[in-house]
Amino acid sequence: MRRSLPGLQQEIVSCRRCPRLVEWREQVAREKVRRFSQDDYWGKPLPGFGDPAARLLVIGLAPAAHGGNRTGRMFTGDRSGDWLFRALYRAGFANQPESVSRNDGLRLRDCYITAAARCAPPANKLLPEELANCRPFLLNEAALLKRVRVVVALGQVAFRAALSAFARHESETRSRDRRPHFSHGAQLPLPGERLLIASFHPSQQNTFTGKLTEQMLDDVFQRARRQIKSARPPGDGS
How confident is the model over 52-96, as pLDDT tens digits? Predict the structure, then answer.
């Protein structure tokens, strides 16, 4: 296990474990799209970012080809990020409601953002082995972010990744049948007095159709805020 977040972030950025994803992310960075033709694409895996002492951990799916894969930061420069950062701002977890580049002044407050996979996948589809290759990164983050009290998982894949990341601390006798199926607003206690909250992903597929509204996303992060305020500090056995 990496002993520091900066060391882990450096390892993530240099990863080349998945040939299909390496080829795709670099092809997108070379060929670009017309509206971003003047941009210098990142074209590498994305590390998590935010407050290392965060009590809120947000887990997404993977970078967007012309969002994070272009800007070099999770949820930055795409429509999903527009929704996410507005919600985080309204809940007090960000200092501004938008994120367009790594140097736009965004600061997360008591929040850390990561993802189940770190490279943009073709057609937004990940193979099981690609998710498995990325799993150790999330496990390391879960171990290093020691103050996390609430985990918000954006989408079913992120929900399963969150369960996997924290399950190693869980009793072996816990039945998987007792875990709730993914649904928006579902929540599950995690080991260490943490709480997992599920949300639909703020993808255009969900936001354009009304499956996810801004009020629904706000409700998730307001619930996370209330849970954090009521939670006992880590290590407080009183």
Answer: 999 999 999 999 999 999 999 999 999 999 999 999 999 999 999
Helix pair 156-167, 128-144: axis angle to 10 deg: 50
User: Which numeric CATH code is attached to 5-169+180-230?
Assistant: 3.40.470.10
pLDDT at 166: 84
Residue 171 is predicted with a pLDDT of 44
At residue 58, the 3 state secondary structure works out as: strand
- Average pLDDT taken over every residue of the chain: 92
Q: Answer whether 101's CB lies under 8 Å from 113's CB.
A: no
Q: Where are the alpha helices (DSSP H) in 77-232?
A: 79-90, 128-144, 156-167, 204-207, 214-230
Token pair recorded at residue 61 = 């799916």
**11: burial class by Cβ within 10 Å (0-12, 13-18, 19+)?**
middle
Q: Which residue has the tokens 């795709």?
A: 24
Report the candidate in 58, 115, 53 with the shortest Cα–Cα distance to residue 87. Answer: 58
Using DSSP, state whether 154 is helix, strand or coil: strand
Structure tokens at 231: 């939670």
